[in-house]
Design a protein that fits this description.
two-stranded antiparallel ribbon, two-stranded antiparallel sheet, alpha+beta
Length: about 120
Amino acid sequence: MMMYVVMAGKEIKKGWKVNVDATCIHLDPALYKDPMQFNPSRFDEPQKPYSFIPYGSGPRTCLGINMANMTMLVFLHRLTSGYKWTVDDLDPRLETKTHLPKLRSGCPITLKALKDSGI
């Protein structure tokens, strides 16, 4: 029976609890070119296994993953088809000292409801 395993040059002893930091994985420049830039097209191509784990992975994956994804799709459809969007500040720089990346300017936008949207 193994008493430890070596991973990336670090010894992990049997019985230790290991926490996977998804934020570090999602911002790893070895996995994503310019990880601090907003670039949804980086997901157009298949990713390496476990390089994007917003809902965790393995036996402890979020049970609501399918419902969450469907809810986001419905919400985004209604938001993008029912409103005219105007970005008030085009500064693309990200704030890096936060748990989740966010635009330094906060990305102020103006939404104007479309009259015939039915929303």
